[in-house]
Amino acid sequence: MSELGEFLRTKREEQDISIERLQEMTKIQKRYLAAIEEGRYDSLPGAFYTRAFVKSYAEALRLNPEDVFETYGSELPQPKQQTTDLPSRAEKSKPKVQKNRGRKPTVLPALLGILFLLVVAAGIYLVVQETDQGNPEGSEPDDDPAIEMDSNEEAGENESESEEGRDVPEQEKDEGKAEEEPDSGDSTEQNSSAGEEEEETEEAVQPEFVETTQGNRSVFDVSGADEMIIELELTGDAWLAVEDEEGSSLEDVSGLQAGDTVEMDLSGEDYVKINIGSSPNVIVRFNGEEVEYPIDSVHQHLIFDKQPQ
Question: N or C: which end of the chain has fewer CB atoms below 10 A?
Fold first, then answer.
């Protein structure tokens, strides 16, 4: 038995600590503790573990490990310097460096791909911008936001003119027609002056501008027109729509192009709205006569109303 082993065993017995109890305290197997007490250091896993086990043994007995090593350390096997381990550790680190170097080339293709996508996106954006700027039609005009407010004064004047037109035939009645019943005077008047009323009807065919509201809505009074033949001639590209008062399409004119002309018989309608997206490129004719735009605006709504308010 070695002096270190005898010393440790004596201190353990003095503190009345069994070898099994010491195993629980140090977490070292009992056979290794017995080998330390008996000096059989070759039974331990190695020189490093021998010193570690002795240190744990001494600390469990509340001894100073440094004093124990200073007194009995010569008995313990000394760990050898493993100089041959250094090259192997360096060699183990080399593959990691090679792996890191191998990843660098994969970053460059990714950056080139992102740069290519950015260039393509910028090119598409520029093409779209140029297309929008060169489009003579512009964007599709919105529907008129407000309800037109027609002038009652114009309508009153039209009614007064019609009444005056009725008075003229009454003054020119024949003596024979005056003997007819009073309640049928209006019908007699119309029959006696049919030719004059036809002339008045022909004069009332042309639309009369009433009022413009919201900056781009122009209302025409066509209450005296029996026919409503509207002709659209395109001198350039333009967006068009022909709708009724409810906003429903009356004619499909979406496919018209520059140089096209379309004639629409809308005599059966009381209200016709022509939505023009590029008025300088569209000529509007009503019953063969060209309609002058009342306002200077690219986007206009021309409304032909047989019953203006």
Answer: N
- Given the candidates 3.30.540.10, 3.30.70.120, 1.10.260.40, 1.10.443.10, the CATH classification of the domain at 3-75 is 1.10.260.40
Q: What is the pLDDT of residues 79-103, one digit of tens each?
A: 765 444 445 554 555 555 444 454 5
- Sequential DSSP letters for the chain: --HHHHHHHHHHHHTT--HHHHHHHH---HHHHHHHHHT-GGGSS-HHHHHHHHHHHHHHTT--HHHHHHHHGGGSPPPPP-TTHHHHHHHHHHHHHHHHHHHHHHHHHHHHHHHHHHHHHHHHHHHHHHHHHH-TT-SPPPPP-S-----HHHHHHHHHHHHHHHHHHHHT--TTGGGS-GGGHHHHHHHHTHHHHHHHHHHHTS-EEEEEETTTEEEEE-TT-S--EEEEEESS---EEEE-TTS-EEE--TT--TT-EEEEE-TT-SEEEEEES-GGGEEEEETTEEPPPSS--SSEEEEEESS--
| Residue-wise pLDDT tens digits, 173-182 | 444 444 444 4
